[in-house]
Specification:
Length: 762
């Protein structure tokens, strides 16, 4: 049976996870891949490859503390290091070794991973002392029914009560199946059974502690394969019946032979993407979140080619989602996610040239200062040399002392026009490899940015309403920060920091808080009379590595410390807090976050109570995505808040994120849904609104969605605020899909004028 098309919640769109860098200018701390504790007998070697990753793809520094005598920590010249030690009988016992990754551009950004190395006397079994170590568990799996030719994909998620990452094995792999490492502690079982494999196959997955393999849990799944191949009802004769893992709508176009890909480092993938429609029309093709350096070009024959040369940072899996769109009915679409698995050939030496990342042609107003950061990056993790080839008269190239430089230029009316600046990065190992980058700096008359009519915030103030945006991380470091901040201050009366309250950013190590950017936003909000909306105190994503490896038994303590620190610091300044963010899965079950593991669903109440103790005047809300309309997830959220209200939990409202796409049509359901939450006495905040133009630029359609959502909010007396997730397409987590109300050149789109009109007239 065809499956009804699924709306792309951001979680699905983000399947590539850590490998993407959606905001080029956000500098996030590096992380170290989880490392299991080690047990070794005296005389044997222990070897640990320490793999740091940096979301900005700049190779982090790596240090070790507490290195045992005689051990080494050698540079593998690929960004990783190997800790190697052969302990002697004098070393029997346990010691804690700590590895630290340090951001290449900001040495304040660090993260650590500690490993206990236990050395046993010769002859003693390689087991830790009887320390109460418990067996890991596997999250429950359900039996599966498939037909021949259908794809089965099962994610196996092991959890260890001690917080180490358990090993996973499978009893036997059916022919043609795979059991791949997702590189996040989980593995994926994939299988497309053939007609020889009809019948029941029982799989047993075992999770075990590598140090104590006897401590294991086995989870069994029965896969029942039935005989007949699935028939596409729209096209019973088609030999190219699409796989069921395409999210299909009846009669919608479908992909032909679009499969997972394997790529060897050094090669470039060239993948022709072909879709068909039973009615003979040529369907459109789109890709969500193109990986960096990839392109998706039109072949002029109805097909497109996806080209990508992966870098060492891409080793492992990246997922991309393709969508094919009916030429006659854009709402009729099929999406399919494929896996790109990048492997290294150990016999092949590949040296990639450096690149200069993250600069786009800036546009600034005459009179502003350009502050353009230039950061050369080498995919092989070496640090390239950077020089300027030519820069505008009167500008300076300043060394930031961290491998980057800043082009600073105070402009005036005489500079109006386009001026170029060029930079060269030279490979640190092979000087014949270099990269040049030229940017065009447009200095324009300040009146270019004038917008007709009244400012949104003035119109909103008059109605006692809040209209706002999310402020990009480190807005004061943007090349065009004066323009970015001035327009926001003119238009909005409420602001949320998009990233700077997130735990990985603000508490990179336990008890170490990095307040600079959050303080900067708080000061900016105050200087401009804007309400400050904090986001989020408790979330399952963007956690620092030390929390990812946390023993759930101390999750409560860590959560409370974090809430107290933030709410205390911004008491009286942050008016609204997203206390808990995204606790539910799409089916309405509780997400198995570290917080849930530690406290069960009670963490939500605990978080609200803790926040309320620190600032009884702050408005405390629960925030989630894909809950603005009625569905199992919003039902679950409804039940949860109802229960909390009954228990007297200090919850004031609900944040509905609303990351929409251009095929959005659930207005009626949103209206009813807001009503039921309002009837509970809760306030409603639309916290993260944007509309990704997935089917291509269509300003009128976008403006209509902007208009209708604002109208729903204004019709509902309890709807207090509408904030878009950013305001210029230049700085959006979904930039490719121009989801915001100003273009990437800060010019107003119809969506802007619709909000203006509705705020004025509605
Ligand atoms: O826009 C944010 C982006 O810059 C971050 O990289 C990303 C990391 O998870 O988070 C984005 O914001 C999310 C928000 O905090 C919670 N709701 C979903 C938003 C979009 O992913």
């Amino acid at each position: 049976m065809p499956i009804k098309i699924a709306r792309c919640g951001y979680a699905l769109c983000l399947t590539g996870g850590l490998l993407f860098n959606p905001v080029a200018l956000a500098n996030l701390p590096p992380v170290i891949d989880p490392i299991a504790d080690q047990v070794v007998s005296a005389g044997n070697a222990v070897e640990i490859v320490v793999v740091p990753r940096d979301p900005e793809r700049v190779v982090p520094g790596l240090t070790i503390s507490n290195m045992p005598n005689g051990a080494s920590f050698l540079d593998n010249r690929n960004g990783t290091r190997t800790f190697r030690w052969v302990p002697t009988s004098n070393d029997v016992g346990s010691r804690l070794v700590t590895f630290e990754a340090i951001d290449a551009s900001d040495s304040n950004l660090r993260s650590t991973v500690s490993v206990t190395v236990t050395v046993n006397a010769v002859g003693q079994p390689e087991q830790p002392n009887n320390n109460g170590n418990q067996a890991p568990i596997i999250e429950p799996l359900s039996d599966v029914l498939v037909q021949v030719g259908e794809a089965v994909s099962i994610r196996v998620v092991p959890v260890d009560p001690e917080g180490v990452v358990p090993a996973l094995s499978i009893n036997t792999l059916p022919t043609g199946a795979s059991f791949d490492d997702n590189r996040d502690g989980t593995r994926q079982f994939r299988w497309q059974p053939n007609d020889q494999q009809v019948g029941d196959t029982t799989l047993s997955f075992a999770a075990y502690d590598e140090n104590e393999p006897s401590l294991r849990t086995v989870e069994t799944v029965k896969i029942t394969v039935s005989g007949s191949a699935p028939v596409d009802p729209g096209n019973p004769q088609t030999p190219n019946t699409p796989n069921q893992d395409q999210l299909m709508v009846e009669g919608a176009p479908f992909f032909v032979d679009l499969q997972d890909q394997f790529i060897t480092l050094g090669d470039t993938l060239s993948l022709r993407v072909v879709a068909k429609d039973d009615d003979g029309s040529v369907p459109g093709l789109a890709i969500d979140r193109l990986p960096e350096r990839a392109n998706f070009s039109d072949n002029g024959d109805g097909t497109r080619t996806f080209r990508w040369q992966p870098y060492p940072i891409d080793l492992g899996d990246t997922y991309v989602e393709f969508t094919t769109i009916d030429a006659n009915n854009p709402a009729s679409r099929t999406s399919k996610t494929i896996r790109l698995n990048v492997v290294r050939d150990p016999n092949r030496v590949v040296n990639f040239p450096p690149v200069i990342n993250g600069i786009r042609n800036p546009t600034i107003r005459a009179g502003d200062t350009l502050t353009q950061r230039v950061q050369p990056v080498d995919p092989d993790f070496t640090v390239p040399n950077l020089s300027a080839l030519n820069i505008p008269q009167g500008s300076q190239l300043v060394d930031n002392g961290d491998g980057t430089r800043n082009l600073n230029w105070l402009t005036d009316a005489n500079d109006i026009g386009d001026t170029q600046a060029s930079f060269r990065a030279v490979d640190a190992v092979d000087s014949s490899l270099s990269f040049e980058s030229t940017i065009t700096v447009s200095v324009v008359d300040p009146s270019t940015f004038n917008r007709d009519g009244e400012r949104l915030r003035d119109l909103a103030d008059r109605r006692g309403f809040k209209i706002g945006y999310a402020a990009v991380l480190q807005a004061s470091n943007l090349a065009d920060s004066q323009l970015y901040r001035d327009i926001a201050a003119e238009e909005f009366n409420i602001v949320t920091p998009e990233n700077s309250h997130k735990m990985s950013w603000i508490q990179p190590q336990r008890g170490v808080f990095k307040w600079d950017d959050a303080d900067d936003v708080a000061n900016y909000a105050e200087q401009n009379g804007m309400t400050l909306h904090g986001h989020p105190l408790v979330w399952f994503r963007q956690l620092p590595p030390w929390v990812q490896l946390l023993d759930p038994s101390i999750a409560q303590q860590v959560m409370r410390e974090h809430i107290r620190a933030l709410v205390q610091r911004y008491r009286g300044r942050v008016a609204i807090w997203d206390v808990v963010n995204e606790s539910f899965e799409d089916d309405g079950t509780y997400r198995n976050s570290i917080w849930h593991k530690g406290m069960g669903k009670g963490y939500i109440r605990d978080a609200f109570i803790t926040a309320n103790q620190e600032d009884p005047n702050a408005i405390l809300i629960y925030n989630d995505y894909d809950v603005a309309w009625k569905n199992p997830k919003s039902d679950a959220m409804y039940n949860m808040v109802q229960e909390e209200i009954a228990a007297g939990t200090p919850i004031d409202g609900v944040g509905f994120q609303m990351h929409l796409r251009d095929d959005f049509s659930e207005y009626e359901s949103v209206e009813r849904n807001f009503e039921r939450f309002a009837n509970l006495g809760l306030d409603i905040y639309i916290t993260e609104f944007d509309v990704a133009m997935f089917g291509g630029k269509n300003d009128e359609l976008q403006a209509e969605i902007y208009r209708r959502v604002l109208e729903i909010c204004l019709r509902q007396p309890r709807c207090k605020a509408l904030q878009s997730w950013g305001y210029t397409d230049r700085y959006s987590w979904r930039s490719n899909f121009q989801p915001l109300m100003l273009t990437d050149k800060y010019l107003p789109k119809p969506a802007y004028y619709e909000w203006q009109r509705v705020l004025r007239d509605f």
